[in-house]
Amino acid sequence: MHIVSKTDYLLYRECQKNAWLKIHKPDVYYSNELSDFEKSIIETGNEVEAEARLLFPTGILIEGRDVVAQEKTAKLVADLAKETAPVQTLFQPVFVKDGFMAAVDVLQYEAATKSYSIYEIKASNQVKEKLHLYDLAFQVNLLKMCGLTIGKICLLHLNPKYIRKGDLEITRLFVPDDVSTQVNERLDEVAVEMQKASEYLSPTKEPGGPCECIYKGRSSHCTTFNYSNPEVPEYGVHDIARIGLSKAKLIELIDGNIFHIDKIPEEIELSEIQKNQVDAFITSRTKIERDKIATELSALQFPLYFIDYETFPSAIPRFDGFSPYQQIPFQYSLHIVESATDLAKTGYEPVHREFLHVGSDDPSGPFLESMHKDIGKIGSIIVWNKKFECKINDELARRVSEFSDAGNVSDSANVRNFIDDVNTRVYDLMDIFSKQYYVHKDFQGSTSIKYVLPVIASMGSGASANGGTSAEGGADKLSYKKLDIREGGTASMKWNEMTTGLRVDDESGEKIALSKAEQSKIAGDLLKYCALDTYAMYAIWKHLWEL
Q1: Options 2.60.120, 3.30.420, 2.60.40, 3.40.50; which CATH number does 291-546 get?
Q2: Longest distance between any two alpha carbons in the chain, whole Å
Q3: pTM of the model as a whole
Q4: Average pLDDT by consecutive 10-residue portion of the chain (547 residues)?
Q5: Phi/psi zone of residue 72: left (φ > 0), alpha (ψ -120 to 50 degrees), beta?
Q6: Are 533 and 308 in contact (CB under 8 A)?
């Protein structure tokens, strides 16, 4: 019988067949490499757990999951109950019983009640009931099987209200949420699920049919979705905008064996956005509402500032004024079009300015000071996702005013006035696409610049390598494929590696020091990536302008 780990059980709750494949066909489950974003999540979890252990200074860490770790756990757990025990806390004790296994983040003996308290450490800002409570219920059930009396059950998570000022205050950084009642209410339910999981995951014969993710939107699909659902096309009904939020609609399509967009019956009710996406795919006609686009663009004032930020969401606040996961803005790229007449010049290219913080200190002040220098007092500031950039600006103003020095704009009132002025001038270029003024089948229902840009580049936007209008030149200059950094998650992770001077080895998990040359290369790669983001916005705007 297969030993069902806590990880197996939680994966089983999300998608049963995916969990079975992880155990019995690991080559299928691990066929895709972890993305940089997924790697950063793992690293963040490790960092948060290490900080949380400081709340229990006498704890003993048990490493590994093998028999040696299990035997060590049994001995130390027995010792905990002795009055003479020098240590009352264990980190990662491993329990195995009746075909189930789990390692507990923190197990603490309470002499007064002769019971054991459990602390589950999570690198999140809140309790996630559908995940965290079932995670803990599995552990409690297993520990009870092992004969332990369980008292307090706590979820130890980051405190979103904590703002760092000076040294890190661990006792304020974490919130110990007592979830004993909620977990105990789920014990019977989870006990039944554990047994079902064991019965499903133990047989070596592969379960037939699709996995249950077939009833979920594309963004919620499991790791092995393509393997379990070969009849589902690469682009189909699962990719319809917000289809995952229309569960009944998706179920109706799947139960009707409808996977291709061009097979959707007319009687299926779709939202306007969904209908536009489907119509564009079926007819291959591009919807362009030129008058509405003209109205949007005519409201913009030259000079035009195309700007994009790169940020790092540090779970453990790294600098004063930051809260857990608050974004650290470390870089921006800026392309500037001074006037409409400049566009008529042969070989015209917009002015490019940029900022990248390469030090290990807080970038906030230098970032804001550079912005103040690069952005003039008049002109529209064009972004892609206004909500994000304006939020970063507001946080910058507060933080720089209260916690740091920003040179020419260090005066609190000047900082606030500058940011308020910038935010009132911001225009979101994505609006044209989210308002459905421009719909192309290859956008695939998305308004992400990574979907919009290739379409625009293939048409020839006037923003080409030589300043001309050839589609080939434009597509080449606007391609991310030749860059070593191609998306924001990688940019964020690489900046963290560059400024800490360390990276995590994929095989050993050990931290390795970066050479100066490696750090310098990362800086160059970051500048190229961010520059393309803003040049891409310029190219898209120019294409719309020329319409």
Answers
A1: 3.30.420
A2: 85
A3: 0.91
A4: 93 98 97 87 94 95 95 91 76 97 96 92 93 97 97 97 96 97 98 98 96 95 96 96 90 95 92 94 95 97 98 96 97 96 89 97 94 96 97 94 61 84 98 96 94 88 40 65 93 96 84 95 97 96 93
A5: alpha
A6: yes
